[in-house]
Design brief:
Elements: H1 5-26, H2 34-58, H3 63-78, H4 83-100
């Protein structure tokens, strides 16, 4: 039995476009529901976190080093470090822990 890859590509295109086009065409008024507004406000942040956090842990040879660097990065951010300082700190922590762990 052979499978036609064009059918899969067309189906994937239809699903992707419908997810993106339907909200634009169906919702024409401003959303006034506070719960829905707050939900939609946090969707990009949650999506970024879901993609980033596993990559932080899996990017190193030791998941423990990645987890420790993540915690130190969160602490550095909490104390006001900018993005460059946090990234240099996390990279240094992973580099130093690669010798220990």
């Amino acid at each position: 039995m052979t499978h036609n890859p064009y059918i899969y590509i067309a189906l994937m295109a239809i699903v992707t476009l419908s997810i993106r086009i339907l909200p634009l065409t169906l919702i024409r008024k401003q959303i006034k529901n506070q719960f829905l507004q707050s939900f939609l406000y946090y969707v990009p942040y949650v999506t970024l976190a879901v993609m980033t956090f596993p990559a932080i842990i899996d990017a190193t040879q030791s998941p423990i080093a990645g987890a420790i660097a993540l915690v130190i990065g969160i602490v550095a951010t909490w104390f006001g470090a900018n993005l460059f300082q946090v990234s240099v700190t996390c990279c240094t922590v992973v580099f130093l822990l690669s010798f220990v762990i």
